[in-house]
Amino acid sequence: MRTTTLSRNWLGAMLVLGLIGACNDKDSPATEATGTVKLSFSNVVGTSPMVLNTQTYTNPTGENYTISKFKYYITNIEVSNGSAKATEKDSYHLVDQSIASSQSFTISMGVSNYTTLSFLLGVDSTRNVSGAQTGALDPLNDMFWTWNSGYIMAKMEGNSPVSTQPLNKVEYHIGGFSGPNSVLKKITLTMPAGKTLDVRESKTSEIKITADFARWWQNPNTITIATLPVCTTPGAQAKQIADNYANMFTLTDVVNN
Description:
Number of strands: 17
Number of helices: 3
Oligomer: single chain
C-alpha cells in the first residue's frame, strides 16, 4: 500500500512539473528574427574625398588648411518606420579616417522595413562616467580625456598657415556631455525618396552615409582658424562647433540584398 501511494505521488508530481514546463514553453516569446545592416561612412570635404596630410582645403572664409586626423563616435544606433523601431545593443563605433576598416561596420536589426536611421554623434553620459572601457571606447583610441573624465566626441587635427599656434597647428577636440554646453547630438536621417531599408533574415542591407567636414565651419556659427585655431576643452566654443557639425551627415543611398 505504501509503495502504491508513493508511486501515485511521484506520478502526480511529474505531471505537475510537465504542465508547468508546457506553460513556460507556451509563454516564452519566440526569438526575434534579425537581419544584417551595414553602415558605410564616406568622409569628404565639400565635394572632394578626404585625404589626410597631403591635400590642401579652403574653408568658406578663404583659409587654407590640411587635415592629419579626423575621428568621430557613432553610437546608440536605431532604425524606425514610425510604428516599429529596432536598436543595436551595446552600440558604440569609432569612425577613423586613418583606418579604412573603421569606416564601415555591420549591426543586427529586427526584420522589417524602415524609413529612418538615428544615432548619437558622441558617447552618452552614462559611458562618459563609467571608467576605463574596451573596444571603441578604449582610452588607447586617443579619444578620452583622462584629465577631464570624458570622451572626445569628434576630433580634427591639421595645420593652416593662418594659425598662430606653434607649427601652425589646428586642433579641434570636441567634448562635453552635460549642462548647457553639451555637444551630444542626436542625428536622424531619412532614407532616400522611394526607398526603405528592408531588413531580412540571412540578408545584408547597406546604408551609405557621407560626412562632410566642410560643415564644421559654418551654419549656424562661423568658425575661422585665425580666431579659433585650437578648441580642446568643453565649453561654449566646443558647443558652437558641434552645432555646426551636427549637419555634416547625408544619407546618400540604401542597397537591399
